[in-house]
Amino acid sequence: MALDGIVISNIVYELTQKIVGGRIDKIYQPESDEIVLSIRHQKTSYKLLLSSLANMPRIHLTDVPKKNPLNPPNFCMLLRKHIAGGRVIKVIQPHFERIVELYIEHLNDLGDRCIKILIIEIMGRHSNIIFCDEDKRILDSIKHVSANISSVREVLPNRPYAYPPSKDKLDPTEPLTLNAFVENMKEKKAIILKALYFTFNGISPIISEELCYRASINSSSHTEELLLDDYERLYDAFIELIHGIKQEQYIPNIVSLNGQVYEEFSSVPLTSYGSESTITYDSISEVLDAYYAKSSNASRMHQKSSDMKKLVTTNLERCYKKLDLQLKQIKDTEDRDKYKILGELITANIHAIKEGDESLTTVNYYTNEEITIKLKPHLTPSENAAKYYDRYNKLKRTYAALTEHIQDTQSEIDHLESIQNALSFIDAEEDLLLIRQELMEYGYLRFRKNKNKKALEKSKPFHYKTSDGFDIYVGKNNLQNDELTTKVAASLDWWFHTKEVPGSHVIVRTDGKELSDTAFEEAAALAAFYSKANKSSKVAVDYTLKKHIKKPAGSVPGYVIYHTNYSMYVAPSDEKVTLVE
């Protein structure tokens, strides 16, 4: 992706056209690193998103709805105090950097007009949203950066704001001669692709590649290898590109592979990809909304679930080690019956054993083979037999206890693996709350009172339709699996689940109709898709009528048993079914 200086300049141009002069109605902070400003201008309402998410920082107008916390964070409250009702008077991009400054005019407590500046720095993991007064003294920031974190610059309240170091890069919008261009490029002593974005602010690797393509230069050529003619063509391509930016001749676009996968985006045509791969838009905000729509939510869910995934993985590793130890211990009890036989043989031949004998040689009447049994010479024959019986009984008790422990450990592994599988498919915070609730109920997380009960109620299973119109419901987690199977499904609905592999419960509603072969195959493919085996080419899926499914009393969420079923092998897929929003 290339949210570079060129895209930023397009965003600033668009914001200047649409929100400058507008008033800030509402301010939200839906995430710890995001701010949404609701701005009304000329009878039109806009939502401006500012995100400092490490791998997807951005600023643009958005139509994507955001859920807001019940209790706004302190940074949000500070913004509301100072700029709610304020008017956006200017939006600038300093020095063609990946920085946007919003100048906001408002009335202070005394009724005097004041200026506040909201700055977003779009710089990967160093991205930040900083709130300053008119003199650019920091009032607060969404991320605090102390001297312990960065020796280059602090971002803390009451500190003067300073721009991030530019590494002596040039502003590409400033006048530049051919000689200066060549001299600066040669100084970098690198391949031409890197030399371009090492020299100029706001030029990304994608734009560097595009400039080389327009100039018919191999981007991997070294700066010292280029001839003067090469530099002249590159300079002309560079000047033409920057001239278009200065004239605000933006063409927001996305490069798409097969119309499905979004490869790159830009505000200038990426001719190196070909026009057939390019989708143009009227607005750069539309581009960013389309590009980040799914990936942003997936990244957010991955970020929020990382602690739970780590917790589940840690507990699974503990269970795997425990199971290995228990299996080794139970293997040591395999020859327990041998000691019972030895005790019996001593008892049967007690008359033939003399005091002080160290062994007994007799025939094992189970195998009709001769056997020599060691004896303790200081013990009587009865005591020797009792010693072997004691060893047998001890191993028998150990075997019984270990068998029960192994079953418990395996059940815990199955439960944790089902949670691990559910965590890989979450697409909403409500689903995450349900999984967190389950982990708390089973002691993996410290219990805490859930204040957001409504969120738990709103979480719903995936709803699909088969190609011939049958409704399919897929549980996103164990609690939903239980709900689907035990309460939602009717007795004549069909139930699907991967065979001996953690996965979602899949219910197909029949409404009294006979299920088609197509529906059976598509439901089974969906069950395989929402399972731990979804990377396999073929997966075994069990299916049966819901009336044959039983849930044992006291069993963990998602655990059921069945004795009447069919099975089929399918390729995991969700392509033939339609997701119902």
From TrEMBL:
Q: Which GO terms describe its molecular function?
A: ribosomal large subunit binding; rRNA binding; tRNA binding
Q: Which GO terms describe its cellular component?
A: RQC complex
Coiled-coil stretches, from where to where?
392-419
Which keywords label this protein? Answer: Coiled coil, Protein biosynthesis, RNA-binding, rRNA-binding, tRNA-binding
Q: Which Gene3D superfamilies does the record cross-reference, listed alphabetically?
A: 1.10.8.50, ibrinogen binding protein from staphylococcus aureus domain
Family the entry assigns: Belongs to the NEMF family.
Subunit note: Associates with stalled 50S ribosomal subunits. Binds to RqcP.
Q: Can you name this protein?
A: Rqc2 homolog RqcH
Taxonomic source organism: Vallitalea pronyensis
Gene name in the database record:
rqcH
